[in-house]
Design a protein that fits this description.
alpha+beta; 40% helix; 2-enoyl-CoA Hydratase, Chain A, domain 1; Pdz3 Domain; 540 residues
């Protein structure tokens, strides 16, 4: 007997939402009809059992995959996750985790929260939650860690090859946008801003005012690693330092109603206090609105490395059954007119990859005071530092958890009672290189991916035999080049190794304390703020 097919309202919702922006109603209606009839016939007639929800999810994924990576479909759980992320509060175990098919890895336990109290450490691999084995659980196992405040859960986990069990009690977890601030050097206020959620402006303003009451006459705002978040919070952060009525960003779209100009709307906290902003390759989106706005208004000196380059604005659109479409609606531009989007997803090369603007084609713009700044993807700092950069090889190491796993091994083989004077030595760096080889870490470069794809096509064209030797020689040459690249990027890799290792022993707070003494970016910021003539020379 054939199953009765109910066409999900989701597909209709997505396309009707699109219809509100387009004029070609006949073409849209035609495509909806084709899709619904195809979906019905496929489910009723396919030789094997099919699952409509899975097919629909794949159809949605296929429809979105050629757009930018920020336009995504959210199921009910993703919608809830986004709500929690923006609110800054949730109930759980108090740790950042990485969920995989057969395990959940503790990435960072938060000091004083349930995971920490239960003795869990970064690198622990949870394999069982209560009576549920993660490898046998089909849905997102990370959701099993959440629950009602005060409820207990037993966790079975692997640590360094040994299986252990612990029980923890769930608590309300506060995710601070400003996890750390401190007065340093007698008159310099240092503020770490890690995310743009609903707490961002309130917490940043509180930190700024507190530091000023303690005697701060200069400020360092640290946006390194901040992935962004709420646009309105970014505008409000800039508003702390610039007058009411200043243009901070404009958004442009083919949809007229999304063409907007965002200005500061309230009286600032301090428009005169000298300000340095730190950014790196993982500072994105709202972080770039803040750093770009302050740079274009000549209000702050930017130090670090070129930021990520995400100049696309998303907005969630409600669909049916609690789902949403987070859709890119516009590009944003800094006050000088720069678009900081690094990759053009609407114009692609012959391989279908988004186009990155060549540096020789960067366009010059003028700040409010007449300084020259450039577009081309990300915010280019006024002072660039090697330790802030993320080269492709470094990004690959991070993506494949090589630095994370080395820090885990380091933690269980070294005693470290005090972070003072700690540094990753050349010997430690060589141990890291040996660690990569021993564990066969395969951090694949884009070159290798393209080469492998070409070789597969050669096999289809029956050319494999004639080029096998040349292919192997190329792979060997790339392997040697990667080893050389590791050595060449030692400075930035050692900086990342240091951060990960320090966190293992002293949590995030200890890392911030360490940075105040040893971070090249902070030391440079202090130097600039102490040299009034240099600070003014950069901005004028």
């Amino acid at each position: 007997m054939k199953r009765k097919i109910i066409i999900p309202a989701l597909a209709l919702g997505i396309l009707i939402t699109t219809a509100s922006f387009k004029n070609d109603f006949f073409e849209i209606a035609k495509q909806i009809e084709i899709f619904t009839t195809l979906f019905k016939e496929l489910n009723m007639n396919y030789v094997d059992e099919t699952t409509p929800a899975i097919l629909m999810n794949k159809a949605i994924t296929g429809m979105l995959e050629d757009l930018d990576p920020y336009t995504v479909y959210w199921g009910e759980q993703e919608v809830e996750d986004a709500r929690i992320k923006n609110s800054g509060t949730y109930t759980g175990i108090g740790a950042s985790v990485k969920t995989m098919k057969d395990k959940i890895t503790i990435v960072e336990p938060f000091k004083g929260y349930p995971a920490d109290k239960a003795g869990l450490k970064a690198g622990d691999q949870i394999i069982k939650i209560g009576d549920i084995t993660i490898a046998d659980f089909e849905d997102d196992a990370g959701e099993l860690l959440k629950g009602v405040v005060g409820t207990s859960v037993e966790l079975t986990y692997n640590r360094q090859g040994k299986t252990q069990v612990t029980t923890l009690k769930r608590e309300k977890v506060e995710v601070d946008a400003v996890p750390y601030y401190k007065l340093i050097q007698g008159d310099i206020g240092y503020i770490v801003l890690t995310k743009f959620n609903q707490k961002t402006t309130v917490q940043t303003k509180k930190a700024l005012e507190d530091l000023k009451s303690q005697g701060a006459k200069k400020i360092i705002l640290d946006l390194r690693g901040n992935p962004g978040g709420l646009l309105n919070e970014a505008i409000s952060i800039v508003n702390l330092f610039v007058p009411k009525g200043e243009i901070i960003t404009t958004t442009k779209s083919v949809i007229e109603k999304y063409n907007k100009t965002y200005k500061t709307t309230v009286e600032p906290t301090d428009t005169e206090i000298p300000l340095v902003v730190l950014v790196n390759g993982r500072s994105a989106s709202a972080s770039e609105i803040v750093s770009g706005g302050l740079q274009d208004l000549d209000r702050a000196v930017i130090i670090g490395a070129r930021s990520f380059g995400k100049g696309l604005v998303q907005r969630p659109k409600k669909l049916t059954y609690g789902t949403q479409l987070k859709v890119t609606i516009s590009r944003y531009f800094t006050p000088s007119g720069r678009c900081i989007q690094a990759l053009d997803y609407w114009n692609r090369d012959e391989n279908g990859d988004p186009v990155r603007l060549d540096p020789k084609n960067y366009n010059a713009f003028k700040t409010k005071g007449g300084r020259t700044v450039y577009d081309g993807g990300g915010i280019l700092p006024d002072i660039e530092l090697e330790t802030s950069k993320f080269s492709p090889i470094t990004t690959a190491l991070l993506k494949d958890d090589a630095i994370f796993d080395f820090a885990t091994d380091y933690y269980y083989s070294h005693q470290l009672g005090d972070w003072n004077d700690f540094k990753v030595s050349d010997g430690d760096f060589q141990n890291f290189i040996d660690f990569l080889e021993k564990n066969n870490f395969s951090y694949e470069t884009e070159t290798e991916k393209k080469l492998e794809e070409a070789f597969r096509r050669a096999e289809d064209d029956e050319l494999k035999g004639g080029i096998q030797d040349s292919y192997n020689q190329l792979l060997n040459a790339i392997s040697q080049a990667k080893k050389q690249d590791l050595i060449a990027k030692k400075v930035e890799i050692k900086a990342l190794l240091t951060d990960e290792i320090i966190k293992r022993y002293f949590f995030a707070e200890g890392l911030y304390d360490y940075h105040l003494i040893y971070s090249p970016e902070i030391l440079e910021a202090i130097s600039v703020l102490k040299d009034e003539s240099k600070y003014n020379r950069i901005l004028k």
